[in-house]
Write a structure and sequence with these properties.
The structure holds two protein chains of two kinds. By secondary structure, chain A is an alpha/beta fold. Helix content of chain A is about 35%, strand content about 25%. In chain A, helix 3 crosses helix 4 (about 130-140). The longest helix of chain A is centred in the middle third of the chain and has 16 residues, at about 160-175. Chain B is an all-alpha fold. Chain B has ten helices and no strands. Chain B has helices at about 1-15, 15-40, 45-55, 55-75, 80-85, 90-125, 135-160, 165-185, 195-200, 210-235. Chain B is globular. Classes of the chains: A alpha/beta, B mainly alpha.
């Protein structure tokens, strides 16, 4: 449904996107992740025909966006929540876009209701909170009832309640068979919503995996507490296991709990605590992107 | 194209910008007409012709209007949703050029109506003969309307080239208040063909050019700015 291949975008000396490949299958929700400045927005803008790639191609439904007929009836996008004239009402903002796309006015009222903005539709956009603007952006994206939705950091500025609302909306949209590509710099925002995750870092492709695969990839460490911590540490290190001392009698070992138990038994070491710390998605994400993000 | 024009027209109707601009124009025009009416010794045919000149503020306001039509979308980020709906960006530009030219026409007609609406009762009450419907003043009124439409379109081209709202407006002011005079002084053969002089030849004050030549030169400027602005907007990244 979405095919990006060899996409490169250079701004002067800065390489914003570096021969990126991205593939989004129809009917899936894909998270597009990377730290701030990883090239997510540039990629999405290139995909939407707003930014001209230095090289490579970006296609939606087999065509570059700018060659789609009536694009807003196939692809809806939210790029920045502040893309609205502060002196125009939310409803009029949508009417302007609907008029350009030859979409009937009745649809304006439908999408306003869908994003729960009907009550404030007659107010000027400058009185809107950031969350309301995000929802107005979503309403605009949904005007043409598109099969594909592309959302750039839609959770920015949303409170936890708003994030849950967004998650439910995206799920119900995907449930209707739509394809959704949603970017974020915080995995936790989208982890519960997406099927697949594409991670990029410094403009380059890092990985494409399901969220389950990603979690499985995290090397789980083992946390141990022992009155003979120093002795245990030596024993583990003799076995070639990476050990990090914790405060007083604790340490973490980069292996399985079974292995730690065996080593302790063989050396007659008493253990007070043995905990397998399962890796979180966020850790996997941080690991893959060099820890340059703020969770 | 009709859908796009409707959309641009709706943009203009749904903010206060156009209304504020029109009201400001009417205030300025009113001030410009009341002066000569009060101060003139005799309200003869030549002075009545000059009264029309009060409406030429509409031309400058149309330029401002055209720049706002274009740069407003860049300033408020609405260029992004606009170009998402219509990826053939040149079509958006055509609609804007048309809307700005129409807006310029409306502004100039409003100013002219005000001039006539103030001048006629004044002249009647004073017992003067009315020359405002003779060929001279009517031609001046039509020329003002044409000039306003042209400069409305030119404003869109200028705004598309500069993108920054403040940049485009300050740039236009600096050109007309300072640079055009300077360039004209340095290169006096070109002086009558500079944008301000050419539009002056078409609407309002006398000049070295005939009004037909002024119209042709102004049309060329408007076309050049619109063409350059359209080509550049179609190619440039929207960020």
């Amino acid at each position: 449904m979405i095919e990006v291949s060899g996409l490169t975008k250079r701004y002067g000396k800065t390489l914003a996107v570096d021969s990126l490949d991205l593939h989004v299958a129809a009917g899936t929700i894909t998270g597009f992740l990377g730290p701030n400045g990883a090239g997510k927005t540039t990629t999405l803008r290139a995909l939407l025909g707003l930014v001209r790639p230095t090289s490579g191609t970006a296609k939606i439904m087999g065509k570059p966006y700018r060659q789609l007929k009536e694009p807003s009836k196939h692809v809806g996008a939210v790029l920045e929540a502040s893309n609205v004239h502060p002196g125009r009402t939310g409803r009029n903002h949508l009417r302007v876009l609907a008029a350009a796309a030859s979409i009937p006015e009745s649809r304006v009222h439908e999408v306003l209701a869908l994003v729960e903005l009907t009550a404030v539709g007659g107010r000027r956009a400058k009185t809107y909170s950031l969350g309301m603007r995000q929802r107005l952006g979503l309403a605009a994206a949904l005007l043409g009832d598109p099969e594909v939705l592309i959302l750039d950091e839609p959770a920015n500025g949303l409170d936890p309640q708003g994030i849950r609302w967004l998650r439910d909306l995206l799920r119900s949209l995907a449930g209707e068979g739509r394809t959704v590509l949603v970017s974020s710099h915080v995995l936790a925002e989208v982890a519960q919503t997406v099927d697949d995750v594409v991670i990029i870092h410094r403009g380059r492709f890092v990985t494409h995996a399901t969220t389950a695969e990603l979690a499985a990839r995290v090397a789980g460490a083992v946390r141990v507490r022992s009155p003979q911590a120093a002795k245990l540490r030596e024993a583990l290190q003799r076995e070639g296991i990476l050990v990090t001392p914790l405060e007083r009698d604790g340490l973490t070992a980069d292996t399985t709990p079974e292995r730690v138990g065996e080593v302790a038994a063989a050396n007659g070491i008493v253990l007070h605590e043995l905990v397998a710390e399962s890796g979180t998605l966020e850790e996997a994400f941080l690991e893959l992107t060099g820890g340059e993000t703020v969770a | 194209m009709i859908a796009l024009f409707r959309s641009e027209f709706l943009k203009l109707r749904t903010t206060r910008t156009a209304v504020v601009l029109a009201l400001a124009l009417l205030v300025v025009t009113a001030m410009a007409i009341v002066g000569p009416l009060v101060l003139a010794d005799s309200l003869d045919a030549s002075l009545q012709q000059d009264l029309i000149t009060a409406a030429t503020f509409a031309v400058l306001f149309s330029l401002l209007f055209g720049t706002l039509v274009m740069t407003g979308d860049f300033r408020h980020g609405t260029a992004t949703p606009t170009f998402l709906v219509t990826p053939k960006r040149e079509h958006v530009l055509y609609a804007k050029i048309l809307a700005a030219a129409a807006g310029g026409l409306v502004l100039s007609v409003a100013a002219l109506v005000l001039v006539y609406a103030v001048a006629i009762p004044w002249l009647l009450i004073g017992g003067h003969e009315i020359y405002l419907f003779q060929e001279g003043p009517v031609r001046a009124a039509l020329a003002t309307a044409a000039a306003a439409a042209l400069w409305g379109a030119l404003g869109v081209g200028l705004g598309a080239l500069v993108r920054s709202q403040v940049g485009a407006i300050v740039g236009a002011l600096v050109w007309f208040l300072i640079l055009e005079g300077l360039v004209g002084a340095l290169w006096d053969d070109a002086a009558p063909y500079l944008p301000g002089a050419a539009i002056g030849a078409l609407a309002g004050d006398s000049s070295d050019l005939s009004s037909a030549a002024g119209a042709a030169v102004s049309l060329a400027y408007a076309a050049a700015f619109c063409l350059a602005g359209t080509l550049l907007t179609a190619r440039r990244d929207v960020t």
